[in-house]
Amino acid sequence: MTDIWNRSIVVVKDKKDIKFAPDTFLNECEWESHGQYDSLQFVNPNVKVLSVQFTKVGEKTYKAFPNLEWIIVRQHGFDNVNLEECEKRGIGVVNTKPFAQSTADWINQYIEDTDRLALIGYGAIGRKVKHTDYVEIVGRHTRVSDEVNTIVVSVPPEGNDYLIGSNLLSNFKGKLISVSRASVLDNHALMKNIKNISHAYIDTLDSYFREELLTTGKVTYGKHTAFNYNFTYENNVEYFSDLEKTIKDCLDNKVEKPILPRGERITF
User: Fold this and answer.
1) pTM for this one?
2) Which of 84, 173, 195, 216 is the 20 to 30 Å CA partner of 4?
3) How many angstroms separate the CA atoms of 154 and 104, rounded?
């Protein structure tokens, strides 16, 4: 534990989860908890680390925290943070993966032992998906083999618009399971090839062609609930210990694989 912990200030916004933090959470660090819509007018300008869950980080935040070094996003996505603006200001960005197991559990309920899987995305979620006797780990430009009858999609949205489109679906017959953001799936392509799909379990589904897909009876729409499948913040030791470790790593500047590394600060 370095001395920097004792003289650094951390702000944790969004209280949905933090209200369940154990009494020992960040007890060696000066920190404050604020609601999503709480004013930033009176916060300490010397804050080094800001953690948010769903709060959007914009100009008001940057002005309130002129000495900010790191932003920690407590979810798998990070589209509520403008990476370009953070890079200009030398602010590093990292996200935790708090819902990897619960999301994988949502997927696993639809996997049969006899399924022959293709995992498109093998990050925190993909590595926790139930493995059957046949599993292919598929890269972005790798073809899914004819042996596969179940595709599991868990890629991030960045750079993956319409990744699951006609090129893949026109040559596939079987089950589709996706927990990726709606932009990853081409609904029109899925509709065109729905006859080849035994069933599609989709956690986030764009409104484009949504009703037509649901009318087929072959699509189960999760309504973006996979992340909290059998999940609770209360008494969740792993959730808060992982968050505390990430905060410590930021304060010590020992972050591994950040979304955006901390850079040289530019004065505005």
Assistant:
1) 0.79
2) 84
3) 9
